[in-house]
Amino acid sequence: MNSQLKSxxxxxxxxxxxxxxxxxxxxxxxxxxxxxxxxxxxxWRSAFYLSSCMEDNDARIKKYIKxxxxxxxxxxxxxxxxxxxxxxRMKLSDKEEGMVFDICIRLWEQISKDPSVRMTAIxxxxxxxxxxxxxxxxxxxxxQDQYLELLSPGVKKxxxxxxxxxxxxx
Length: 170
Fold this sequence. Notes:
Layout: H1 4-11, H2 14-23, H3 28-35, H4 42-53, H5 59-62, H6 65-71, H7 77-88, H8 94-109, H9 115-131, H10 136-139, H11 145-148, H12 153-164
Helix pairs in contact: 2-4, 3-4, 4-7, 7-9, 8-9, 9-12
């Protein structure tokens, strides 16, 4: 049975969907449940909209951090990117950061992955590395040409700029 949320997910533009979730917050938990499910096309769309209408460190997302971490590996590229964007906006525990870091390393190393997923993964890796300088040596090998060669010149430039923004990286 299609819910009101599912109907909105397939018939609304982004602004309409974000407004719907903000005006009817009772659908927020359903949106999170859909986002971590395999119920396509609703799961990816729900994750996409959630990252746009949630607050930073949104209390409604906190109890879903672990389920997101568990399911992210099994999702397709675009879905992984959207789930990472949700997690990026959350304050994570050290253990959760470690799990995200490992997930993002694996995604970054898969050079056949969609560049947008890899870009989101490297942003997360660098965010965590800025907070934990002991990880800087661990991520240096990830900046070798083999990981950058399949990316567009613009994406490479953006990544190199982000890397330069980390103090003591060189």
